[in-house]
Amino acid sequence: MVNHLLPETLEEALEALARKQHLLFAGGTDLMVQKRAWAGLPRNFEHPVLFTSRIAKLNFIEKRSDHLAVGATCSLEMMLEYPDTPDLFKTIIGEMASPGIRNHATLAGNIANASPAGDTLVGLYLYDATIVLKSLRGERLVPIADFITGVRKIDLAQDEMITEIRIPHQDFTHIDYVKVGPRKADAISKIAFAGAAKTNDLTVSDIRAAFGAVFKTVLRSPATEAMLKGMRIADIKADLASICEAYARLLQPIDDQRSNKEYRKAVAINLLARFIKSL
Amino acid sequence: MAKIEFTLNGEVRQVDIDPTIRLLDYLREDLDLTGTKEGCGEGECGACSVLFDAEVANSCLVPMGNVAGHDIVTIEYFSRTERYRILEKAFLEQGAVQCGFCTPGMIIAAESLLRKKPKPSDAEIKIGLSGNLCRCTGYNMIIAAIRQAAKEGEGLW
Ligand SMILES: Cc1cc2nc3c(=O)[nH]c(=O)nc-3n(C[C@H](O)[C@H](O)[C@H](O)COP(=O)(O)OP(=O)(O)OC[C@H]3O[C@@H](n4cnc5c(N)ncnc54)[C@H](O)[C@@H]3O)c2cc1C
Ligand code: FES
Ligand code: FES
Question: Which fold has domain B2-77?
Answer without folding.
Answer: Ubiquitin-like (UB roll) (3.10.20)
